Amino acid sequence: FGEIMDLQKNFEKYAELILKKGLNIKKSECFTVSVNEDTLPLVRVIAKQAYKMGVKDIIFLFNDDDLTLSKYLYANDAAFDEFPKFKVEYAEKYLKAGYHRLALHTANPELLQSVDPKRLDKWESVSAKANKRVQKYTMNNMVKWVVAAAASPAWAKSLFPDLSVEKAVEKLWENIFAATRVNLDDPIAAWSEHDKNLKKYSKFLNKAQFTKLIYKAPGTDLEVCLVENHIWQGGSGTSKAGATFFANIPTEEIFTMPHAYKVNGVVKATKPLIELGNTIENFSFTLKDGKIVDCTAEKGKDVLKTLLSIDEGASRLGEVALVPHDSPISNTNILFKDTLFDENASCHFAFGAAYSETVENGEKLSASEKKKIGMNESMTHVDFMVGGPELSVIGIDKKGKEVQILKNGNWAF
Ligand code: ZN
Ligand code: ZN
Fold it and tell me: Is beta strand 278-288 parallel, antiparallel or unpaired with respect to 291-299?
């Protein structure tokens, strides 16, 4: 580091962005933060700033990739039978007590490659079921929450195998700082400006209330109905208590709720998907009445099928997101192999749960009301990318009027 990039100085700026814009943390508030050996230096900077800002308490939740891998490889089957109830109760207790949540991760795309996918799938489903009670705190914005990332040697080497570890880590940090606008003089001001811009597009789309979107690109010909009274969200979100926060750093998307039962056609993914320790490549879905009835993949088809069969809602869409092809992340021209970055570099859908904030009164709906309006429910939520320079998206309103939304991958209005 040193000459090219002052890492410590950027950590200070990144920490400030995460605390002031991301969590929008206030005096006397508390939060939890995930920590591993590679995020620790950044977490220390975050903690120092947070305490100075008057934060009352921080709970550090330790995790380690090597320990995770050891469990998957060497623990006996019984270790995956149930998720300890008291762990869920602990999480529920701090969320109930109003602890906000900072999920700071390092990606490790190849970590679980050698693990039996059945074991991964089993644990995914067991832990998702057990944690359903705590999932609602973030899905319904009951607390302020942020997902952000830090560089690590394993992640950096996976992206830049030809560089030395040091150079690879440095290059990854540079790209993280570019994607998050931390490399600018005043990242906080830049995020306020960026937020205003995102709100401009969501406002237009909210007013238009398109009933249907038509997606056309090579390998894609899809009709996606949106739920009635859908809300396009983008940029800062609002917690139940009325505080703004950014759930993702970075974020470039405007997203809303597709109708779980009214999507038809074919959609081809434009980027690989890394899930359950596997890379799924060149895949596409056929949807009929909202259900994914067929899928193809050049690689990882079994994993894809596993993901889609976690529950009934896993094979229906829960999110439609628009991201212009021209954005700081996509301009890095890097496949980050991490959803946080890759989803914000490309238009995407998610199969699985819908966000209640993307429809009017979404958080107040009962299970039967959700079904009635077409809001998808699931234990899972997996983004897959469909954006690119050839994507066209047309909106059709109640009167049948057509409006070009994206042309050649970029905003057309
Ligand atoms: Zn999204
Ligand atoms: Zn998503």
Answer: antiparallel
**Residue whose entry in the numeric block shows the structure tokens 């999480």:** 91
Question: Which letter, b or e, does each residue of 333-353 get, where b requires 16 or more Cβ atoms within 10 Å of its Cβ?
Answer: ebbbbbbbbbbbbbbbbbbbb
Q: Give the number of the ligand closest to the Cα of residue 353.
A: 2
Give the tens place of pLDDT for each residue, 22-37: 999 999 999 999 999 9
Its pTM surpasses 0.85: yes
Separation of 58 CA from ligand 1 center, angstroms? 28
Sign of the CA dihedral with 151 first, then 153, 154, and 156 last: positive
Q: Name the helix (H) or strand (E) containing 217.
A: strand 212-217
How far, in Å, from the CA of 344 to the mean position of ligand 1? 7
Instruction: Dihedral sign for Cα 316, 320, 321, 324, please.
Output: positive
Instruction: Kindly give the distance from the C-alpha atom of residue 353 to the centroid of ligand 1, in angstroms, as a whole number.
Output: 12
Contact between 39 and 73 under an 8 Å Cβ cutoff? The reply is no
Q: Which residues contact 266 (CB under 8 A, 6 or more apart)?
A: 219, 220, 221, 222, 284, 285, 286, 287
Amino acid 4: pLDDT: 52
pLDDT score for 5: 65
Are the C-beta atoms of 235 and 195 separated by less than 8 Å?
yes
- Residue ranges for the chain with pLDDT beneath 50: 2-3
